[in-house]
Design goal:
By secondary structure, the chain is an alpha/beta fold. The chain has two domains: about 120 residues, Thiolase/Chalcone synthase (Peroxisomal Thiolase, Chain A, domain 1), CATH 3.40.47.10; about 110 residues, Peroxisomal Thiolase, Chain A, domain 1 (3-Layer(aba) Sandwich). Helix content is about 35%, strand content about 15%. Helix 3 crosses helix 4 and helix 6 runs parallel beside helix 7. Bound molecules: coenzyme A.
Length: about 260
């Protein structure tokens, strides 16, 4: 019988740009307070890329960190997949730019855009509403979302998906060692964990330090889990995310290293 294991996570490399934007900084930029942001979302600070630093630059730094801790020959890489809603440019894909910057010769790649844009989209800048003075003036390049609806949908969907994947594998929340959910809002994560009867010590939350980094939240939370010793070889790990589309997914895996 063939081995049913089709893929393993055998190394992790993450990177965030050094410049921090705190809630206090935001207080001086827009009408808000640190208390409101922390109470409603759990976010205290986020990392901001400097002007001229693109998504591919962040990805390349993450790969360099990965190679530092787990030396591998990058020329052996078969495929590069970049999850992003902020590609360097419309085309080529950011994966191609990462491939070029890392000098990996014989690989291919593509981008996956299923980030967390919310209930209503970013309408401007595509083929439907090409960028123009008017789209910029009307702020059509910004993301619009109905936050309250997103909140309710995210809790309901993440609980549903995680229950389904556990049932399919004849497991319950008690069998899970580590729950890593998309970090969009601390209350969404904890409400989902509550529905799964998952104790707080199994739930990874680092949104306070990074904010919502869209496709980056789960790997960053894995890094946090590794650093605080909550992710060890053989652990049963449950991943869940809800994002733009709406798209949603859950994965159950055993940690491989
Ligand atoms: C934008 C936001 C900060 C505004 O906060 P707010 O207005 O205080 O939101 P609320 O606390 O009222 O929550 C929104 C809804 O979820 C409900 N809700 C709150 N806690 C809940 C829980 N534990 N379980 C289920 N629903 C819950 C609220 O009752 C409310 O529904 P209602 O409008 O029908 O009363 C918040 O709604 C939010 O973070 N939304 C999600 C945004 C997001 O994460 N976007 C990225 C997705 S990837």
């Amino acid at each position: 019988m063939s081995n049913p294991t089709r893929a393993k996570i055998t190394a992790l490399g993450t990177y965030v740009p050094p410049h921090i934007l705190s809630n206090q900084d935001l207080e001086s930029m827009i009408e808000t307070t640190d208390q409101w942001i922390v109470e409603r979302t759990g976010i205290r600070e986020r990392h901001i890329a400097d002007k001229g630093v693109a998504t591919s630059d962040l990805a390349v730094e993450a790969v360099k960190k990965l190679v530092e801790s787990h030396p591998i020959d990058l020329q052996q890489v078969d495929l590069i997949v970049v999850g992003t809603v902020t590609p360097d440019m419309m085309y080529p894909s950011t994966a191609c730019l990462v491939q070029h910057k890392l000098g990996i010769a014989n690989t291919w790649g593509f981008d996956v855009s299923a980030g967390c844009s919310g209930f209503l989209y970013m309408p401007g800048g595509g083929s439907l509403n090409p960028a123009s003075h008017e789209t910029v003036d009307k702020k059509m390049h910004y993301i619009h979302q109905d936050g309250q609806q997103v909140f309710k949908y995210a809790v309901k969907k993440m609980a549903e998906m995680t229950q389904r994947i556990l049932e399919r594998n004849h497991l319950t929340g008690a069998d899970v060692d580590c729950f890593i959910a998309h970090q969009a809002n601390r209350r969404i994560i904890m409400a989902t964990a509550d529905r799964l009867k998952m104790p707080e010590e199994k739930v990874i939350v680092n949104i306070d330090r990074y904010g919502n980094t869209t496709a980056g939240t789960i790997p960053l939370a894995m890094q946090t889990a590794l650093e605080i010793g909550k992710l060890k070889k053989g652990n049963m790990v449950l991943l869940a995310a809800v994002g733009a589309g709406f798209t949603s997914g859950a994965t159950l895996l055993k940690w491989a290293y």
